[in-house]
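cron nightly-structures :: item 1 of 1
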Amino acid sequence: MNKNPFFFKSYFFVAFLAVTITSFLYIQNIIFKLEERSLITSRIFAKYTSGVFEDDPSFGEKIIFEEIIKNITFPIVITDSNGFPLSWRNIGFLDTVYDINNKPQYISDLKRIIAKLDTEKKPVEIKYDNRIFAYIHMGEDPLYKSLQVAPFFEIIVSSIFLMIGIYAFLLYKKTQDNIIWAGMAKETAHQMGTPLSSLKTWIYMLKENKNIDENIKNGIEEDSIRLETIANRFQKIGSNPVFELSNVNDILKEIITYFKVRVPDDGKYKIIFEENFDNDIILPVDRELFKWSFENLIKNSIDSLKNVSNGKIEVKTKNEKKRFLIRIKDNGYGIDRKNLDKIFNIGFTTKKFGWGIGLPLTKKIIEEFHKGKLILESTALNTGTSFLIIFDKDEKKNTLDR
């Protein structure tokens, strides 16, 4: 799916808004609970102060049960000196159970909860006249846990936002690169259109002249058709590919046939092709773009074989159970180790008059358009280079639907 810059800006804005709102609500929830605790404390103090001047011996007990116990938010279990549960609160479903006599399952559950609470806080002993008659088992206050988690929450939220930002930036950059690719390709196709039209006229006039060798006429016409094909390919880069089921072996054979008559075939610097094709490989491809990508790879091999005696280019296909493999290997001068990380970068070239778009364009066609994988399998100076192209069979099932 093609995405424009406005989409990425909107995506980034929505992500920023969502992360900000989530963080704000989390912190506001903690603040609200702290304010609530402050109000409870103030209310207890006010009631206690007012009770001092009242002749009511039970006002302290009322404060304890109406204000303190009622507003406890942390888990608590009170047991007798023998560890038998007497009262509990904020421990889950057992909050609705008030009688555990003759109910061993509830007693077992409560003791398990008590053991867990004791790992969080040491039990508080309730003594009277130097004798322990009860224990208070308490867990951590949820608000305290929230405050503990808050810094980590902020870090996580910030990290998520940062990752979303990086992802959006990379997608945006990729979109910008695609726009540049498409614009450059369409402009190139447009610029080639005018001289091609003129060239066709000249070819027609040459055909009318009986004094010119037919081989010359045919050669010029063939190159004209070739130029027109190249212009159409550039036009396709800026448009949606058109896929059709094709036999990859046949496409490769066609490319090899084209190059065979255009490379040295005798003398010291001749170049031979070794073909090793497995069972038919049928893939949904845009034929012109697909041919272009492999022509680039083979042309690079031919260039690497200049001044190499007994040059060899091996083109091999393998039809495996779950994937298709295509290997293009030569015995040329190879790629310098310092350039290995740059060969797929736009503009990088070691050729004097190169543009540095051959391999990046090939990678784009194979990986973005045809969902394959282009790998520099091996290379060594004065030994040769091998490129491996992989197509996953499962990945190709829905290619025609794109």
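cron nightly-structures :: done
The longest helix spans residues 142-208.
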